[in-house]
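hiii, so i know i said id send this last week but things got crazy w the move. better late than never?? heres the sequnce for the chain we talked about at the cafe, plus the structure i predicted for it. fair warning i was half asleep when i ran it
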Amino acid sequence: MLGELVPWQWLLNGLGWVLARLYDFVGNYGVAIILLTILIKIVLLPLAWKQIKSMQHVQALQPKIKAIQKKYKSNKTKIQEETMKLYREAGVNPLGGCLPILLLYPFLIAMYSVIRPVALVPVSDQPGTFQVQEGHNHIPEDSALFTAIIGHTDTDFLWMNLQCTPLGAGTQAPLTYMEPGSRTATQLPDGAPIIGTDGKTLEAVTHSTIDCGEKRFPAAIPYFATLVLMVLSGLYMQRQTMKNSPPGSQSGQQQAILKYMPLMFGFFGLRFPAGLLVYWLSSNGFQVGQQAIMLRAGHIGPDALERRIEEQKQRAAEPGKPGLMERMAAKAESAEKSRQAKKPAPKDPPKQQRGKPQTGRSKPNAWPDAHPKRTKGAQPGNQLKRKPEEPV
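okay and structure toks below
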């Protein structure tokens, strides 16, 4: 199974290595997470920049696309042609707002895998000894950060233990492990030796609990404050997006999804380690600043699409290599011409028949003067004479 996910494991191990090096540099777990967040955002900045612009422009085109669908509602081919023409004129890739985002969200999952507590499993041939579970730790085992994480020390930031969750704040949160073949979690013992994935005994020993504070209040305050700030920053970021979108570009359903998504993430965040909340809050803050800069520069906003269309007209007037939308539109036009060429030619109407027009029903391919009109019975003079009756 792990062999099938080698690229994913490389990403997780790479993030863990960078996080450990940042911890060595700053000596604080929370600051190291914030620096790693900024570093990830800078690396993904070109994709995120493109994704925000494409999403805004696609949303701005929705009223025009709906008008095309209404105008040509009985002609699907015409709808497709006019829609592609509209995308080409605006220089917008309809997939531009979707594809880059597929590379952004996996980093949230990756950071959860990197920040979560190290998973331990019992060693079958050495009773009372535990080993780091392979594939469930992405911090280098020879680093100071790994020693701090597995020993649950020096992982504090702003009066929080970043390995604790908001629900576990102010308690001695139990640490558990899973027996092979069992689905029931068992609490770890205190002081058991730990073996690394390389088979060497580590200096750290197991702990049965994590110290998340003595009392719920006031120990839980910084945890829930971070969670609330994370939700509020997400709501502000979505409001910033909707406010800068052209009127009518988003349906009521889309607005509801954008509005309630941060609330849903806040509910999930109750069970996430505080380190992940710090990452999430830092990511939202970076995103808000990025959108503000893009709005000021005119890359997004209610009038951004019109400027984009004017730029595309100027580019179209200059000779150059066609873009993606131009190639897609040309391909669609070529396919339509090919389809029209394959249609059978219409048949010519039949020529007017010679002679007087027939009235009533007529047989096909029958000329009026080609066959004389027939009368009932035989012609006069050709009638058969009746034989006299023979005597009996």
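btw The longest strand covers residues 201-205. thought thatd interest u
miss u guys!!
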